[in-house]
Amino acid sequence: MKSQITKMERTLDLCRWTYNQTLAYRKNAWENEGKSVSKYETNALLPGWKEDKPELRDVYAQTLQNVQERVDLAFKAFFRRFKAGEEPGYPRFRGKGWYDSFTYPQPEKGGNLVNGMVRLPKIGDIKIKLHRQIEGKIKRLTVRRTATGKWFACFSVETEDVPLPPWKDGAVVGIDVGLESFATFSNGETIANPRFFREEEHELARAQRKLSKAPKGTPDRKKALKVVERVHERIANKRYEFAHQVSHNLVDRFGLIAFEDLNIKGMVHNHCLAKSISDVAWTMLVQPG
Question: Where is the Probable transposase IS891/IS1136/IS1341 domain (predicted)?
């Protein structure tokens, strides 16, 4: 198992190298030649890169292609924001530790579950703890590492559409989100704001003070950084669980759910409200998936 974790860590680092190399190639092509490079053109570069960097052969080929797809999506999002007059945010290079997942796009070749193990091509079979049984056909698998070193397998599946029960046809609700109450329903119900960050703020501040005092490059600093990361992870987990529970309850009760249209990113720029806005889980609740 330890050797497989090492292989996953190495896979992440090679994916990070591929991401940066692809980004640099597309950036240089545009700046030097005014040429826009497609995802498929960058896919064609991989065999040559493997000749120059043989260790890339240790990563599943379609996983590397998915890395280049991520670069392509980052550019598409950049141009979409630019055209919409938003702050575009040019795609960034990924430093060490800033690439945390890799994907197997075709489950029949990678991501199969066998006797409580998940099969990862070029890595091996790894014991997995299923939080719930997988329903439907697995379409892709993404393996993700958290900042605190935990590993998760995220399966995307295809299932048959389940028709709504007849009583849901007329079950409609409108929802306004806010800071006093997390959500207010059109039927008068409210959900209190849990304020996850505020609950952990003092512990986080204490951990960050210890981190700032620890000399760089020392074991003490590494240990202090892990404590800060654990607090952030705990806050994120609480926020995600809350949003998931609320969304599940809404889907169970209503056939049509309408949300207030909010520019959450723009609201965060208000420094008086930024901390409170970032503390709530509006985006997690509203976004699909």
Answer: 156-269
| Cα angle: 244, vertex 154, 106; to 5 degrees | 140
Rounded CA gap, 39 and 43, in Å?
6
Helix (H, G, I), strand (E, B) or coil at 256: strand
Q: Which structural domain range is residue 58 located in? A: 2-101
How far, in Å, CA of 3 to CA of 36, rounded? 40
CA end-to-end distance (rounded Å), the chain: 31
| Of the candidates 64, 65, 67, 90, the residue with the CA atom closest to the CA atom of residue 77 | 90
Report the alpha-carbon distance of residue 70 to residue 103 in Å, rounded.
10
Cβ atoms of 193 and 180 within 8 Å: the answer is yes
Token pair listed for 169:
């046809």
Coil, strand or helix: which one is 174?
strand
Q: Which of 140, 158, 176 is the last residue of a domain?
A: 158
Cross-strand pairs, 176: 184
Ordered per-residue pLDDT tens for the chain, 289 residues: 678 889 999 999 999 999 999 999 999 998 888 888 999 999 999 999 999 999 999 999 999 999 999 999 999 998 888 888 888 888 999 998 889 999 998 866 656 777 788 889 999 889 888 888 888 888 899 999 998 889 999 988 888 887 767 766 668 889 887 777 788 888 888 888 877 767 777 888 888 998 999 998 898 898 998 888 888 888 888 888 888 888 888 888 888 888 877 655 555 454 544 444 454 566 777 765 5
Sorted by sequence, the CB contacts under 8 Å of residue 153 that are 6+ apart come out as: 111, 118, 128, 141, 142, 143
Residues 258, 175: one domain? Answer: yes
- Distance CA(55)–CA(116), nearest Å, equals 29
pTM exceeds 0.70, yes or no: yes
Burial class (CB within 10 angstroms; exposed 0-12, middle 13-18, buried 19+) of 7 = middle
Total of domains in the chain: 3
